[in-house]
Amino acid sequence: MQVTMTINGQEVSEEIEPRLLLVHFIRDQLGLTGTHWGCDTSNCGTCVVLIDGEPVKSCTQLAAMASGHDITTVEGLEVDGELDPVQEGFMQCHGLQCGFCTPGMMLTARALLNADPDPSEEVIREAISGQICRCTGYSTIVRSIQWAADHETDVSVGSAS
Amino acid sequence: MQVPAPFEYERATSVEHAIALRTQLGEEARFIAGGHSLLPMMKLRLANPEYLIDINDLDELFYITRADDEIRIGAMTRHRELLDSDLLAEHFPIFRDAEKVIADPVVRNRGTLGGSLCQADPSEDLSAVCTTLDASCVIKSTDGERIVSMQDFHVGPYETAVGDTEMLTEIRIPLKAGGGSAYEKVERRAGDWAVVSSGVAVWMSNGTIDDGRVGLAAVGPNTTSIGPVAEALRGAAPSEEFYEQVGEIAAANCSPQTDQRGTAAYKTHLAKELTRRSLRRAVARAQGQEA
Questions:
Q1: Domain spanning A85-150: CATH superfamily
Q2: What are phi and psi of B279, to 5 degrees?
Q3: Which of B20, B55, B108, B263 has the greatest number of C-beta atoms within 10 Å?
């Protein structure tokens, strides 16, 4: 079947098998390997991408279901060489160690800040509670997102509007 | 790598179209809503549909509205909307209690009420909530619609009353005066399926419980409303001793099995304790004592 969707602002149209999961479509068919593929059971959250601005676990969505929608992957956070404040925050506050959970964490953080520019620590922790960091670095991840909130620019990648 | 077996995919454009596709494709077809129960089942080959009918474009099934004497919820309404709804929280705080402990915020962006009920997992929280609230389910086909109580909706583990040519479109919850409700769940880790959970709803006047119901998950083949609990609640005056008695009635009338989530004895204990806590909170809410 044919699917057509917007990925990071670019329209893509591809022939796929209906059973292809969105995570494999993004990684294997489009070669965007920034989206990680982890537990395959919608627990770990490293495969999170934004669909129409909302974080979704792409191991538990069919690529077919994403057809016609607007997808943002971690590659879409950087715009014209400028890092998203979330990416900058992860750099400034040591928000990653091994980096495996990072793409999902950053996209969930971006969606959170689009909806709530000044979240409390509790709200941040709740927002990322569907994601697992195997280096147990949650404190620095929370600090990274707080840094991003304090340094928001007028960019809002993945904003549904 | 876990990948579903091959199937063909169709996207429905309206409820009528979805039902027509289902009728045409027959028993090998399944609707896919959020996909967060069905796709994991398909990856494990526990479900092997030959056709998937995607119903995510059916905007007409996303709503929470108040009719005269009931709240009506479209089957595609997602967990996140159920959690955020002030209308639901005002009339049935049990929904927000339960939604806070269902999976995680990202999963809640996709999973739906209709999908949860149709999954018919005995440990599923919204089934327990809808059982507690005596909800009814609107099931449509080309022949029209029929309304089925929660009691009759689940006909066994992972089995519902929805036929091969039918579709669950709406859940209706009766509104009665003086209501309070609450939900308590014990899980192995945050967002997991319930080891046991218990919902309670009461309707009170002048300090007396006029009517009440319980809905327990993970203590039998389906979520269950225990008749003797409703009988005990009717006309009762609330007290700590009474809450304890009701918990004991719940425990005596459930039939949990030992599995990887806990022993039957532990689950029976939870049924008692969680029913007691939910009842206490439901009564407090009915009396306006607790948000």
A1: [2Fe-2S]-binding domain (1.10.150.120)
A2: -65, -45
A3: B55
Nearest to A1 among B4, B9, B106 (CB): B9
Q: Report the gap between the CA of B52 and the closest CA in chain A (Å).
A: 9
Which one, of B162, B133, B180, B173, lies nearest residue B31 by Cα?
B162
- DSSP code of B224? B
Domain shared by B41 and B115, yes or no = no
Task: Check whether residue B151 and residue B228 sit in a common domain.
Answer: no
- Binary contact (B8, A18; C-beta < 8 A): yes
Out of B11, B40, B104, whose CB is closest to A130? B104
B138 lies in the same domain as B156: yes
| Beta-strand pair B51-54/B29-32 | parallel
- Its CATH class, for the domain covering A2-76, is alpha beta
- Dihedral sign for Cα B95, B96, B101, B105, please: positive
- Pull the structure tokens for residue B243: 């809450």
Contact A57 B105 (CB under 8 A): no
CA B198, CA B19: separation in Å to the nearest integer? 34
Structural domain span for residue B31? 8-54
Indicate whether B163 belongs to any domain.
yes
Please indicate whether, in this complex, the C-beta atoms of B106 and A41 are within 8 angstroms of each other: no
Residue A29 sits at the chain B interface (C-beta within 8 Å): no
Query: Which of B146, B126, B118 has its CA nearest to residue B55?
Result: B118
Nearest to B53 by CA among B78, B28, B75: B28
Instruction: Give CA B181 to chain center in angstroms.
Output: 14
B185-220 tens-digit pLDDT = 999 988 899 999 999 999 999 999 999 999 999 999
pLDDT tens, position by position, B33-63: 999 999 999 999 999 999 999 999 999 999 9
Cβ–Cβ gap B190/A129 under 8 Å = yes
The alpha carbon of residue B108 is apart from the nearest alpha carbon of chain A, in Å, by 9
